[in-house]
Write a structure and sequence with these properties.
alpha/beta; 10-stranded mixed β-sheet
C-alpha cells in the first residue's frame, strides 16, 4: 500500500492545512458575516485593512494611506463581530470592468498600458461608467508596485501573529488588454525596458516591436508572449516578498480568473500557472462556470493547479445561469450546481471554498445566493462537510499516476480542445488523471507520476524535450500519440538523430491508433444583459482514449482507476474523486445526472485489499454496494479492516516518536494535526489510522548558512524510532523560484547541498529596471522519502 497511497500535496504544507473543506464561506459576506454564518454555517470571510493609495495635490504624488489600520484591527479582534477566520485581501487589480483607476489618466498617466503607437488601451462599454474610456493599469509600474508592496508589508507586519488569518491574496484580477479586445500591449517605455532585461537574462536579442504583434506565431512573438507571462510572475514575486519578509506564518496565494483552457486565452491573460505557482505558495481561483459546466472547467483548472504539489484555494467559485429577465442576463447557482461544484472542490483536496456571491448584483448578473434555493443547499452542503471533518483530517488529493502534458509551446499558441475531451473521458470513466505543464517534468517526477501522456505536442521547447527524456531515464513512462516534437519554440526542426533515443527507449511507447469520432466542445463565458453569456464552438476529432490508456495500463503498478466499479447501467455521470491520508482512502462521489444510480465500488487491490467502508455523511458503516441519487453526493471512507487493533500501543509509539523528533530539533509543524487528532479524534479507527501515518512518516531538521554568495544547506532525517535515517531521498525547491528540484547528497553530516548565486531566487526590481538576486526571505520546500515512508518540511530562509 505504502508508496501508492501518496498525496499530491507536498507534506510540508500540512504546517498550515489540516483537511479539505476546512474553511467555508460565501464571497462578499464580510459585511454581513454574522447573518451569513447563522444561515449557511460558514466559518470564514474575506477581509482587508482597506489600505489605499492617496494622491497628494501638494507633491503631485501618491502615498500609502494607513489611517484606517487601527480601526480595521479593532474590527478583526472584536469579541462580538470579529474573531473568525479570514482570507486577507491586498494590492491592486487592473480589470477594466471594475474600474477604480480612471483618475490615473490625470494623476499617474505613466502607469497606464500603451499600444505600440503610444495610445492608451481603453474599454468603452455603455454599461461601465457610461461608456467613458477606461484605461488599463500596467503590470510592472514602479509607483503601483512600490506602494502596493509598502501597503502589503504594513498589513503583514500587523497580522503576522494573528490566528484569525488563514491566507493572503496578492491583489485581484490582473490581465492584458487583448483579453477584452482592447489592442496589443504593453508598450510603455518602462515595460519595454522590462522586456529588454528579460531578453538579456534569456541570452537572446531583443526583437523589433513590430515583430511581436500580429496573428502569426513567429519566434519573436513567442518570445514576447513568454515574457508577458514572466512579467505577471515578476509582479507576483514582488508582492510575495513584500508579505513574506514581514509575515512568514501564513500562506500567500496569487489570484487567477477566467479560463486559460480555451483558444489563446492563456497568452491574453498572461496567466501561466507553472510560472506563477512557484512565485508564491499556491494558486487562488476565481473562475466562473456557466450553467452545468459541460466543458468541466472547474475540475480541469483545479487539477492543473494542484499538479504542482502546492495548495490551491477556491474562495471565488462562480456559476452563472442564463436568465435574460435578470440584471446582467443571469443569476447565480441552482441548488444542484452549488452542491456539485463545492463537492468537486472538496474532492480535489481544496481547503478553502467560497461560492459567489452573498449579496452582490453586478453589471453581468445577479450573483447573490442570499434568500435563494442555493442558500438552503449551501447550508446543507456546509453541514455535511463539517460533519465529515474528522474523517477528512490529514487528507489530500491522491497523487494521480498519469498526467496529460499540455506543453507550453503548444498551449501558448492555443489550447487544444482534444485535451479537454481527453480529460472529459477520464472523468466519465472514473479515471484519476491530471493536466500538467513543462515546469514539473524531470527525473524527480518519475517516482510520483509513472506515466505522462504526450498527446499531439508538435511544437515543444528544447528544455522540455530533454526533461522528458530524463524522466524516462529515471523510470517514468511516456505514452506518445500524434505529432511529437516536430519543431522547437524557435521554429527550428528537431533532427532525426535527436528523436531516435525516444523511438527505441524501453519506457517510451508510441500509440499508432487513429483519431476517434468527431465531437463538439462549447466554451462559455460571461456576457451582459443582451445574451447573458457568449460561447465558442470547437469541432474536433477526439484522441483515441481507450487505446492510449491501454498502453499505460500495461505498466506495472500504474493505477489509472483507483476504484474498481461495477453497475448494470452506464456510469458516465458518476465522478469519483479520491483523497488519502497515506493510510486510508476517501472517495468523493458525485452523480452529475438526473437519474438514481446503483453501483459497487472498492479500492484497487494494490491500494487496499482488506477494508471497511463508512458512509460518512450518513454516519454509518456501509458496504461496497452504493445508491446515489440524481444530482447527489457522498463521501465514502475506506479504512484498513481492524485498523483499531493494538491502538493503544500504536498511539504510545506515535506519541513517543513525535516527542523524539521535537527533542532532535526536527520540524514537527506539518504533523501537528496527526499528533492532536490521533489522541482526541471522535472515531477510533481514524485515530488509529493517523497514528499509523505518524509511524510511517519522516521528520526533517534543516540548518543553513549563507556566505560568499553561496547557500549551504544541511538536513537530517528521522524515522519513527527517532534515529537518523540513511539512504533516504531528499530534495528541495525554492519559492519564489521555479519547480526545479535540487538533490541533497548524503555525507557524514547528514544530507547537504550548496547553491551558488545563479541558483538563488531573483526578483525584478521595478526601480532599477533589472533582475537582481533577492535579498530577503524565501521559502524552501523540502521533500523526504525512503521506501514507503514520506515526510517534508517548509522553512523560511533569510539572506
Amino acid at each position: 500500500m505504502g508508496n501508492l497511497l501518496r498525496q499530491e500535496l507536498e507534506v510540508g504544507y500540512f504546517k498550515w492545512l489540516e483537511r479539505p473543506g476546512e474553511d467555508l464561506g460565501v464571497f462578499d459576506n464580510e459585511g454581513d458575516f454574522e447573518e451569513c454564518r447563522k444561515r449557511v454555517h460558514c466559518n470564514c470571510s474575506h477581509w482587508s485593512m482597506n489600505l489605499q493609495m492617496k494622491y497628494e495635490e501638494e507633491s503631485s504624488k501618491y502615498v500609502a494611506d494607513i489611517s484606517g489600520v487601527e480601526e480595521a484591527l479593532k474590527q478583526l479582534n472584536d469579541p462580538i463581530s470579529g474573531r473568525h477566520h479570514v482570507i486577507v485581501w491586498g494590492a491592486d487589480h487592473n480589470n477594466v470592468y471594475f474600474p477604480s483607476f480612471t483618475k490615473y489618466k490625470k494623476t499617474l498617466p505613466e502607469c497606464l498600458m500603451q499600444g505600440i503607437n503610444g495610445g492608451y488601451l481603453e474599454l468603452h462599454d455603455p454599461l461601465i461608467n457610461g461608456g467613458e474610456g477606461i484605461p488599463m493599469p500596467a503590470i510592472d509600474d514602479e509607483t503601483l508596485i512600490t506602494l502596493n508592496c509598502e501597503m502589503l508589508g504594513i498589513q503583514a507586519a500587523k497580522l503576522k501573529s494573528s490566528q484569525y488569518v488563514k491566507a493572503y491574496m496578492l491583489g485581484m484580477e490582473e490581465l492584458y488588454p487583448e483579453y477584452f479586445g482592447l489592442g496589443n500591449g504593453d508598450f510603455r517605455p518602462a515595460s519595454w525596458k522590462h522586456f529588454e532585461a528579460w531578453c538579456e537574462r534569456q541570452g537572446c536579442p531583443v526583437p523589433a516591436r513590430e515583430k511581436v504583434i500580429g496573428d502569426s506565431m513567429n519566434p519573436e512573438r513567442m518570445l514576447w508572449l513568454s515574457f508577458r507571462e514572466q512579467a505577471m510572475a515578476d509582479r507576483c514575486g514582488n508582492y510575495y516578498e513584500a508579505v513574506l519578509k514581514h509575515d512568514e506564518n501564513h500562506l500567500i496565494f496569487y489570484p487567477t480568473h477566467g479560463s486559460t483552457m480555451c483558444r489563446d486565452n492563456r497568452s491574453r491573460l498572461g496567466q501561466q500557472p507553472g510560472t506563477l505557482a512557484c512565485q508564491c505558495d499556491g494558486m487562488e481561483m476565481g473562475h466562473i462556470m456557466v450553467e452545468n459546466d459541460e466543458e468541466r472547467r472547474n475540475v480541469l483548472l483545479i487539477s492543473h493547479f494542484t499538479s504542482f504539489g502546492a495548495p490551491v484555494i477556491v474562495p471565488r467559485l462562480g456559476n452563472k445561469r442564463v436568465d435574460l429577465s435578470a440584471i446582467g442576463g443571469g443569476r447565480s447557482f441552482s441548488a444542484p450546481m452549488l452542491r456539485r461544484l463545492v463537492y468537486e472542490c472538496l474532492g480535489m483536496g481544496v481547503s478553502k471554498i467560497f461560492p459567489i456571491h452573498w449579496t452582490s448584483r453586478l453589471h453581468d448578473g445577479e450573483w447573490f445566493i442570499k434568500n435563494t434555493e442555493a442558500e438552503t443547499e449551501c447550508r446543507k452542503v456546509f453541514d455535511e462537510i463539517t460533519f465529515a471533518a474528522p474523517f477528512l483530517t490529514g487528507m489530500a488529493r491522491l497523487q494521480p499516476q498519469a498526467g496529460i502534458l499540455a506543453g507550453n509551446a503548444e498551449w501558448i499558441k492555443g489550447w487544444k480542445p482534444e485535451w479537454t475531451g481527453f480529460m472529459q473521458d477520464a472523468f466519465a470513466g472514473q479515471y484519476h488523471m491530471t493536466l500538467i505543464s513543462d515546469e514539473i517534468i524531470g527525473k524527480h517526477l518519475a517516482a510520483r507520476m509513472p506515466v505522462i501522456f504526450v498527446l499531439d505536442n508538435a511544437v515543444m521547447k528544447r528544455r522540455t524535450f530533454s526533461e522528458l527524456y530524463n524522466y524516462a531515464e529515471a523510470g517514468g513512462h511516456l505514452v506518445i500519440w500524434g505529432n511529437f516534437a516536430i519543431n522547437d519554440e524557435n521554429q527550428a526542426s528537431f533532427r532525426d538523430e535527436e528523436r531516435k533515443d525516444f523511438l527505441h527507449h524501453k519506457n517510451i511507447v508510441f500509440v499508432p491508433e487513429n483519431r476517434g469520432r468527431k465531437r463538439v466542445l462549447r466554451e462559455f463565458f460571461l456576457s451582459g444583459p443582451e445574451f447573458g453569456v457568449f460561447g465558442e464552438r470547437f469541432v474536433y476529432q477526439e484522441f483515441p482514449f481507450k487505446a492510449i490508456c491501454a498502453a499505460a495500463e500495461e505498466i506495472k503498478d500504474c493505477i489509472l482507476r483507483p476504484f474498481d466499479m461495477e453497475a448494470e447501467v452506464d456510469l458516465t455521470n458518476i465522478n469519483i474523486y479520491p483523497l488519502t491520508d497515506r493510510k486510508s482512502l476517501a472517495a468523493v462521489c458525485i452523480n452529475n445526472g438526473e437519474d438514481d444510480v446503483e453501483f459497487t465500488i472498492r479500492p484497487d487491490r494494490r491500494l487496499m485489499e482488506d477494508f471497511q467502508v463508512y458512509d460518512i455523511c450518513a454516519g454509518k458503516i456501509g458496504d461496497t454496494r452504493q445508491h446515489l441519487n440524481g444530482g447527489g453526493t457522498k463521501i465514502l471512507w475506506f479504512c484498513p479492516k481492524n485498523a483499531e487493533a493494538g491502538y493503544e500501543g500504536k498511539l504510545m509509539e506515535a506519541e513517543d516518536c513525535f516527542e523524539k523528533w521535537r527533542a532532535a530539533g526536527a520540524d514537527v509543524s506539518p504533523y501537528r494535526y496527526l499528533y492532536s487528532h490521533m489522541q482526541t479524534g471522535c472515531n477510533l479507527k481514524k485515530r488509529a489510522v493517523l497514528a499509523e501515518v505518524m509511524l510511517h512518516t519522516l521528520a526533517v531538521s534543516t540548518e543553513y548558512n549563507f556566505e560568499r554568495g553561496k547557500l549551504h544547506i544541511t538536513c537530517k532525517v528521522f524515522d519513527s524510532s527517532g534515529e537518523a535515517v540513511k539512504n533516504a531521498g531528499l530534495s528541495f525547491r525554492l519559492s519564489p523560484g521555479d519547480f526545479e528540484w535540487q538533490d541533497l547528497k548524503e555525507d557524514v553530516n547528514g544530507y547537504t547541498c550548496t547553491l551558488d548565486e545563479k541558483k538563488l531566487p531573483v526578483i525584478y526590481d521595478v526601480k532599477q529596471k533589472e533582475y537582481v538576486r533577492l535579498k530577503g526571505t524565501f521559502r524552501m520546500i523540502i521533500r523526504a522519502e525512503k521506501e514507503e515512508k514520506q515526510g517534508g518540511s517548509i522553512i523560511n530562509v533569510y539572506i
